[in-house]
Amino acid sequence: MSERDQCVTMAQILGQTPSKAKEMVNYMKRAVELNPILDTSERTLLSVGYKNLITSRRQGIRHLMQQEDEMEGLTVPCKERIQKIKEELINELVGFCTELINLVDEVILPKVEDPESVVFYQKLKADFYRYICEAQTGHDLELSLENATKSYKKALEVSKQNLQSYSPTSLGLILNYTVFLFENAKKQTDAVRIAQETYQTYAPIIEQNSEKSREEAAQIIKLLDENIKLWESSLEETDSEPVNE
């Protein structure tokens, strides 16, 4: 077994153990160094490894942000400690996301030619910019929103020109793009409109996918439908709230 194959095998084994996400990522980084052309399962390993690496950080940051109102009665040293923990989590999150984005930009994408892979990696970049957005404010947030938008739009452009619009890759891209629009870019109306158009257009024809892709496409369509209902309900509640001066 070659060194690269051993790296991929180790990543597969460690992928079942989230606490070993960093080690899994290191094996996949080495595999990319040896040959940056990844097959579908290897791409998934790379993506899952980094997502496992940042999941606890994202959850921790969200929790601390939600608990800010509960900190009023704490002493100054306690508040400073919590702020320091939040900053550490943010730095780790941004660091890991940036590491993956740079790996894709500088090592993988220059070697990729097939459109489906280009869409996958541009979407992956955009998703990780989106995760960075969750932890930023001000000018840093504006830059990350801009970078995420560029990557999503590049992926959408390549997808539209080269892939079947009802394929899991194309539908998954639109699903994540609409989440970005609604939750990060604060373009809720656009998010709902695009999600509705996608659902209405492609839900009736996902059976045209191959048998292997049909189930995945159906699951994405289901998630789109759930998001549409959730977002419409959220917008209705917002519209119904009284306006105060």
Automatic annotation (TrEMBL):
Residues 4-245 form the 14-3-3 domain. The record marks 58, 130 as: Interaction with phosphoserine on interacting protein. Pfam families: 14-3-3. Gene3D superfamilies: 14-3-3 domain. GO terms for cellular component: cytoplasm. It comes from the Eukaryota. Coiled coil: none annotated. SUPFAM superfamilies: 14-3-3 protein (SSF48445). InterPro entries: 14-3-3, 14-3-3_dom_sf, 14-3-3_domain. One of its GO terms (biological process) is signal transduction. Belongs to the 14-3-3 family. This is 14-3-3 protein.
